[in-house]
Amino acid sequence: MTSRRQRWLIIADSLALPRPGVTYQATWPYLLQREFANWDWVNLARRSSVTTRLVTDGDSGTDCLEFYAPDGVILHLGICDCAPRLYRQGSIFQHLVYRLPGNLGRRISDLLERYRGRRADNALVGERQFRTNLANYLRRCKDAGVTVIALEIMPVGEEMIGKNPGIVAQIEKYNRIYRDLEASSSHMKIVKAFDAAANIEQFTLDGYHLNEQGNRLVYCSLVDAIKEARSTQ
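RESULT FIELD:
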């Protein structure tokens, strides 16, 4: 009797997708699929993803878990949740500015960027909701006997910090939530691919999106975590 093939989901944002300068074959999901060739890999990466999809996609998030009945899940989410922004998503003011004729909307945005900056309280997903989204998902994974490996939100480069200085503090706050949840969840493992000493510019195209070297580093970190998780099951 043959054993059932392992099935793993990848739920991520654009950091797990190809882009100019990074082919599909260079992405960490492809490298994982090649490493664990006898497993089924379901790549649900989507640009601009936030943790809200864990509890909304399909019927209350079932597109991200129950419909696939996986053995494990890899999460690479958080930077889109936490990044400070100029406008609150869906606000009347944002709607009005975006509808202004000509370049007037852009000029207003540029002035706000210069004199007020992006604000943490305009993040797409607030800290409390971020924690709630993940806790809901982790509970469902525990009930289903699913292993969860989550990548910490990686640091960003000087160019992004220059445009959005508040992002450094936001990343730390949201990563602390990840670590808090790991401490109370025996089926969850946090992977920190980039330590504080890492030169993030060396691993990214623009101080944010992974280049080939960055994808390989994430892949290597995940391989170790997956093998460790499997050895304890």
